[in-house]
Structure formats: C-alpha cells, structure tokens
Amino acid sequence: MPERENENENENDAASTSEAASSSSTSTTSEVMNLFGKYEVGKLLGYGAFAKVYHARNVRTGQSVAIKAVSKQKVLKGGFTAHVKREISIMRRLHHPHIVKLFEVLATKTKIYFVMEFAKGGELFAKIARGRFSEDLSRRYFQQLISAVGYCHSRGVFHRDLKPENLLLDENWDLKVSDFGLSAVKDQIRPDGLLHTLCGTPAYVAPEILAKKGYDGAKVDVWSCGVILFVLNAGYLPFNDPNLMVMYRKIYNGEFRCPKWTTPDLRRFISRLLDTNPDTRITVDEIVRDPWFSKGHKEIKLLNDDVFDFKDDEDSNSKSLNAFDLISFSSGFDLSGLFGDPEISGERFMSEETPEKIIERIGEMAEAENLTVTKKDWKAKLEGQNGNFVVFVEVYRLTESLVIVQIQKRDRETGTSLDIWNDKLRPQLDDLVYQQPEASVSGN
C-alpha cells in the first residue's frame, strides 16, 4: 500500500480531476493526477452511478492501465458495500486471457481505486452499434465469451450481467469480460440450490429471473450469452419494446425472430440458448460440443502458473497459499478496512506449529472461557456474550514449515467482550508466534 502521508494530496488531486471530468463534454480531462506516486491518471473513459474509470500509466513500467475510482460515500449511502467487496474478491481470483485482470486495489479515506488491465479497443457495444458482425466474427467472439464464462462457472462465479457494454476488446481485438459488480458466488446459493437476487439488464435478463422463483446462476449467464450472440449476428436485440412490461412478456414467452440472413445451424443454436425453460436450455458443456460453435474453435490451454486453486473448503482439507493469496494478505487487498467497519478488526501471525495443533489449542482455550467453539478443518469460530462476540480463526499453509494464522474479530458491543480475546485468549498464543532469527553480524 502506498504511504499514507500523500493521501490528502492525492484526494485533492482526485477531486479536481473528477470535477474537471464531470464538466467536460468530451469525457476527457487535460489534467493529470498522480495517484500514490505509482500511476499518472489522465483521460476519463466512462462513469457510472458511483464510479469513474480513467486511463492511467504505471510510472515505473510505462504500462497502460484502467483505474476505476469508486466513491466510498456513494457506495455506503447506496448500500453497495457488499457488492464492491464481492467484486474485488471475485476479480482477484479470476485469471483468464478473456477476463479483465485486476492488478491491485488502493484506497484513501474517500475512494477505492481498482487498478485493472486496460482494454485499448473499448466496448464491444461500440463496434456492434456500427453494424452487425459476420457469422464467422460472431462465432469468434462468442467462443471467447464462452471460454471466459465457462471458466468462471468452474470456479463457482456467476456474472449475472453479461451484455456487450461489459465486454471489452484489447489491442488485438480479443474479447475481455469485465464488470463483476453484480456477480454471485456459490456462498450466495440458498438451500434450494438457487440464487434469488433480482439483477441484470432488462433486455438481457433470463425469463426465470422475471418469475422471481429462484434461478441457476450458470443458466442465466447462458441466456445472456444467447442474447449477445443474437445481437452480434443481427445488429439488434431479440427482445425489445419501448414498454418495459411488453418487453418482459416477450422475454418470458421467448418471442423473438432471427433475421433472414441467419443460417439454419445458427438459428437452431440460438434457439437452444434462448430456451425459456432453464431445465432444457443448453449448458456450457453442450455449447462447446455443438457443431456451429466448434467450427474453428481452439480450446484455450491454461498453464498451471496461470490458474490458481480455488477449490471449495469442503473439497480440501489443506489450504496452501499461492502467489496471489500472498498478495491478498497485503494491505492493498485487505478488504476488511476498505469501509472502516468499526465492528470488525483483525490480525495475523506466522507460526511453525501445525494447523491442527493451532486450531486445537484455540478451541481448548475458548472452551475454558465458556465460549462456543465450531471447528472445521483449519478453521474455528468462537462465539460468546449472547452472540455479541465472534472470532473467526483460519490457518493457511505458507511453506512446508510455516503457516499464517488469520484472526477476524467482531464486537457488536463496547465493553468487556473484546477483553476476552485481548486479555485472556491472545496472550496464550504468544508461544506459537514464529520468531524470525536475528541476522548475525560478522566483523572484518
């Protein structure tokens, strides 16, 4: 994380740049903001309800990046804190050639900055607005889209807002999926196995979302992909009407008509994507085997170095830290302090003890203080004070001999409950903390 003494200066610069951008009818600004001494921020690329995206340059490497500046005040006021935290959490674990990379997250008192891969080609939407694509070009972009979407689904991530405006193009005119602000993860699935949050852009939303009965995140993404493919081929939306309720009725009933130039194979394929019954709608696995899709398709082989292990905790009794996890432990990716939640605090330390012994020790200490202990693999949850005091402990493997112990504390009441941790439990862990050997100094 950059040094904090530059924070006020950076905030003033950011504010002046934002004001200049807002007043500019050409969506550009001649002013250049220096962010933490790491990035020179220039032209405004776009903006939304609580964020603005700028083109920037890494001062050290000269690399072009996109920086999304998110207003904390607007996020808090609009109740979007969980959305922003989820977007960071999701983007930091997706590493795919057709997904926009998140390099780092920086924060000041008033803003959060997403430093992301810069897609020089802009939005796919702008290209479609000039006219429909050929069938071969439509297929090429659809293959890249499905490669990214299938990758997300395999890692338990569902985008839920796929549309041409969220599909960017790089300098080679290859597709990059962006904007995971409305994404969902497996943790949000209810006991019925479905998601229930109403979200998405009206023209691209699946009929089962309109039914408000719960939906499968993977299936609604496939529907949106079908709408995108239709737009690529036709140059217009399959479901559209000035009256929103009429458009929703068309979506719910699957009322669309392919243009006359659509080939029979593509017409059949689109009908399977835009099947109003999610149970019979084509799946990603079936998509990649379809004759229309597979024509000229080259499967992307991801190297082990490019894919991080994101198995659910149920599937693995060991949790080793990979390179990106280590980055996430740095302040730049520490999500707990982004919004200054006064109820949550945390700490971490390294230890040479085994994860099992650490969890066992913490459990015994907590039970001696009449706390309720729930343990699972390398995790423990401690509860007391009628639910006002909660401590989460998780152990990660760092090397063969070292682990990191991460502790998160939630204290909903001021008073003595945190003293249980600070005065009674934490001191008993001192002997577990790894002491780095002092460097020996030799004289001449």
Automatic annotation (TrEMBL):
<feature type="compositionally biased region" description="Low complexity">
    <location>
        <begin position="13"/>
        <end position="26"/>
    </location>
</feature>
<keyword id="KW-0723">Serine/threonine-protein kinase</keyword>
<dbReference type="Pfam" id="PF00069">
    <property type="entry name" value="Pkinase"/>
</dbReference>
<dbReference type="GO" id="GO:0005524">
    <property type="term" value="F:ATP binding"/>
</dbReference>
<dbReference type="InterPro" id="IPR004041">
    <property type="entry name" value="NAF_dom"/>
</dbReference>
<dbReference type="InterPro" id="IPR008271">
    <property type="entry name" value="Ser/Thr_kinase_AS"/>
</dbReference>
<dbReference type="GO" id="GO:0004674">
    <property type="term" value="F:protein serine/threonine kinase activity"/>
</dbReference>
<keyword id="KW-0464">Manganese</keyword>
<comment type="similarity">
    <text>Belongs to the protein kinase superfamily. CAMK Ser/Thr protein kinase family. SNF1 subfamily.</text>
</comment>
<keyword id="KW-0547">Nucleotide-binding</keyword>
<dbReference type="InterPro" id="IPR011009">
    <property type="entry name" value="Kinase-like_dom_sf"/>
</dbReference>
<dbReference type="GO" id="GO:0007165">
    <property type="term" value="P:signal transduction"/>
</dbReference>
<keyword id="KW-0418">Kinase</keyword>
<dbReference type="InterPro" id="IPR000719">
    <property type="entry name" value="Prot_kinase_dom"/>
</dbReference>
<keyword id="KW-0808">Transferase</keyword>
<protein>
    <recommendedName>
        <fullName>non-specific serine/threonine protein kinase</fullName>
        <ecNumber>2.7.11.1</ecNumber>
    </recommendedName>
</protein>
<dbReference type="InterPro" id="IPR017441">
    <property type="entry name" value="Protein_kinase_ATP_BS"/>
</dbReference>
<feature type="domain" description="NAF">
    <location>
        <begin position="316"/>
        <end position="340"/>
    </location>
</feature>
<feature type="binding site">
    <location>
        <position position="68"/>
    </location>
    <ligand>
        <name>ATP</name>
    </ligand>
</feature>
<dbReference type="InterPro" id="IPR018451">
    <property type="entry name" value="NAF/FISL_domain"/>
</dbReference>
<feature type="region of interest" description="Disordered">
    <location>
        <begin position="1"/>
        <end position="26"/>
    </location>
</feature>
<feature type="domain" description="Protein kinase">
    <location>
        <begin position="39"/>
        <end position="293"/>
    </location>
</feature>
<dbReference type="Pfam" id="PF03822">
    <property type="entry name" value="NAF"/>
</dbReference>
<keyword id="KW-0067">ATP-binding</keyword>
